[in-house]
Amino acid sequence: KNQVEQSPQSLIILEGKNCTLQCNYTVSPFSNLRWYKQDTGRGPVSLTIMTFSENTKSNGRYTATLDADTKQSSLHITASQLSDSASYICVVSYTASKLTFGTGTRLQVTL
Amino acid sequence: NAGVTQTPKFRILKIGQSMTLQCTQDMNHNYMYWYRQDPGMGLKLIYYSVGAGITDKGEVPNGYNVSRSTTEDFPLRLELAAPSQTSVYFCASSRGTANTGELFFGEGSRLTVL
């Protein structure tokens, strides 16, 4: 069964600190992996999309890594800001119109 | 830039009532999708469309219907609402397939069935 598991479920960090969110997947055949940011009460917004051959991809203070061999991805957030408080969702694509969504990691950045 | 627009944002229905969630996009995307997001669960695909006049079922289509008469609009119809349909519904669109194209989501429609 295609599954995407994210950890931790929730995380609280101080503003300015770094953090790393994890994503493990069993989706096959793998096509690409995406990270989305979802603010409370809003729709998800794409942060990165990585294909099988990409190991690292950055979008500002967000850096995603992908290890297709171990089927793991991580999202690293550098110098966190209050506006980074959101849910971060890992999504793995395996067919033309089919995506498997993780349940997300809820991040809270505090002063 | 409007992007993907959903209406209504909130709605309360009684069991057995019907309603339509509206979705429109102004990016001329061929592909459109309806997802539902339940607490503690990942988004689940209800229906999708690869172009005007073409729709197909996703993972959880029971209790829903869709139509795609134009490129811009992709309404989701709930017939005989049930408490199990209480959820947040997201419409999304993409230029290419979900596999290759970036998904753009609407703001969501929160539906409660009592």
Structure in a nutshell:
The complex is a heterodimer of chains A (111) and B (114). Chain A has 111 residues and is mostly beta strands.
Distance between the termini of chain A: 41 Å
Order of helices and strands of chain B: EEEEEEEEEEE
**Gyration radius of chain A, rounded:** 13 Å
Share of β-strand residues of chain B: over 45%
Q: Report the structural category of chain B.
A: mainly beta
What's the count of strands of chain A?
11
Q: What is the percent of helical residues of chain B?
A: under 10%
Number of strands of chain B: 11
List the SSEs and their pairings.
The complex is a heterodimer of chains A (111) and B (114).
Chain A: E1 4-7, E2 10-14, E3 19-25, E4 32-38, E5 45-51, E6 56-59, E7 62-67, E8 72-77, E9 86-95, E10 98-101, E11 105-110
Parallel strand pairs in A: 2-11
Antiparallel strand pairs in A: 1-3, 3-8, 4-5, 4-9, 6-7, 7-8, 9-10, 9-11
Chain B: E1 4-7, E2 10-13, E3 19-25, E4 31-37, E5 44-51, E6 54-57, E7 64-66, E8 76-78, E9 87-94, E10 104-105, E11 109-113
Parallel strand pairs in B: 2-11
Antiparallel strand pairs in B: 1-3, 3-8, 4-5, 4-9, 5-6, 7-8, 9-10, 9-11
Give descriptors for this structure.
heterodimer; A: 111 residues; mainly beta; 6-stranded mixed sheet; 5-stranded antiparallel sheet; 11 strands; B: 114 residues; 4-stranded antiparallel sheet; 48% strand
Describe the structure.
The complex is a heterodimer of chains A (111) and B (114). Chain A contains no helices and 11 strands. Chain A is mostly beta strands. In chain A, strand 7 (62-67) and strand 8 (72-77) form a beta hairpin. By secondary structure, chain B is mostly beta strands. Chain B starts with a strand and ends with a strand. At the A-B interface, strand 5, strand 9 and strand 10 of A face strand 5 and strand 10 of B.
